[in-house]
# Entry
Amino acid sequence: MDHLSGTNPLSNSLRDRDIGHLIHLGTNLAAHQQDGPFVIARGEGVHIFDEAGNRYIEAMSGLWCASLGFNVPRLRDAAARQIDTLAYSHLFFSRSHDQAIQLAEKLVELAPGNLKKVLFSNSGSEANDAAIKLVWYYQNARGLPEKKKIIGRMGGYHGTTIATASLSGIPTMHRGYDLPLSFVEHVDCPHYWKYGLPGESEEAYAQRLAEDLEARILREGAHTIAAFIAEPIIGSGGVIIPPKGYFDLILPILKRHDILFIADEIICGFGRTGEWWGCDVFGINPDILTCGKQLAAGVQPISATLMTEEIFDTVSRQSAEIGAFWHGVTHAGHPVCAAVARETISIYEEEDTIGHVRAMAPIFKQGLEAFASHPLVGEVRAIGLMGALQLVSDKASKAGFLPKTAIGPVVRKSALAHGLALREAGDAVVLSPPLIISADEIHAMLDRLRATLDQVYSEQTL
# Structure
C-alpha cells in the first residue's frame, strides 16, 4: 500500500501521546502541538512504512545515516552476538575490549592521510565537540594558550552542543541560545552559484574565498587561531560542493599560519560521495577527522575523532603532566555499537557498497539534472549519492523565498502525499538515499519528487 491510504485508529492514540510527552528536534514546537507527528512503524530496504501501512521511499536515509537501509539482518545479528558476549564495557581508566580495539584499527587503516589514533563518542556532535577540546588541550600543551579560536563557515553544520552549534554557520541554530560563543569565527559559505560575482569564474571565486580567509586570519592574529573546521561537502546546509580548487588554496594558508584542519566527515564518510571519505574526493590529508552516522549505518549510535600521531604525542605528554586526559562519555566505544560498526564496514567491503554508489551516481545526477528546467529550480547539485535542488521564486534573479512564504516545509509535506520522505535545507530540497538504492528506485524517487514539485508549483501560481 503506497502513499496515504486510510487511517489507523492507533495512529491517533500515538499522536496524542507524542504531543503529550515528546520534544522533537529541529521542529516548530508550537506547530507540532497542533499538527502532531509523522509516526514510522517499520522499514524495509530503502522504504519506511507508517502505521497505516503507507509506504515511502526514504530519500534522506533518515538523517544521512541509514546507509544500508532500514532492516539489516547482519547488523541485528552482530548486535545480538555482542550482547550475548559482553553487553557493556567502557574505555575509562585504561579498560578496553576487543570490539573497540579492532574498530579503531580498521578506522586507521581506512583513514586518509596520517591519522593514527581514535577517540570514540556517540554522535557527530560529540565527535566534533571532542575535536574542539582536543585542539585546545593540544595548543595548551604546546605553550600557546592564546591559540584557541576556531574558524567555521557560514552554511556549515557541525552539531547541536553549545560548542558545535556555535561552529555551525546556520543562524537559526543560534537564535534564542545566545550563540555563537566568542571563540568561533565564521567565513563565507563556498557556494559559487549563490555568492559568485557576475563574470567571476569558479576558480576566481575560490581564490577570493582563500584571500578572504587569510585576511581574517591576519586580522584576528594567527597566534589566536587554533583550527579551521569544514565538511568536505556541506551537507545539512544544502549539499554545497566547493568551487574548483577551493581546498588546494585553503590548506596551504592554514599550514602557513600553523592552523589545524579538522575534516568533519560525519555525513560524507563511508561512501556517500563515491569514495570512502569526502577528503578523498579533494585529496585532503586532515590533522583531525570526525566521523559517525554511516559508521554503523544508523543502527547504533557511535562516532569517532581521529588524529595524527603528532597531535596524540603532544596530548599524551600533557596528560602525563596533568595526571589524566579527562575527556570521555559513558558509552564511548560501547561494545555493541563497535561490533555493529565493524560489521557495517565488513558489509561495505564485501558487497562493494562504494562501487555500487559509483555505479548509481551518474543515474542519480542525470536524474536530478533533468529538474534544471523546472520553474521552481535554480540550481542542481549532486555528487555520489547526495544531491540538492535549489528552489527559487525567480530563476533569472536567483531570488529565494521569504520566511513567511518558505517553500521547503511545503515541499516536505507535499512529498509525503506522493510517497516520498525528504527534507529541506532553507530553500533547497536535499536528497541522500540509502547507499543500497537501485536504479529503479532512483527513478521512482525522482518521479515522486517531480510530481511533488509540479503540485507545489501549481499551488504557488494559483
Q: What stands out?
A: The longest strand covers residues 115-121. The radius of gyration is 22 Å.
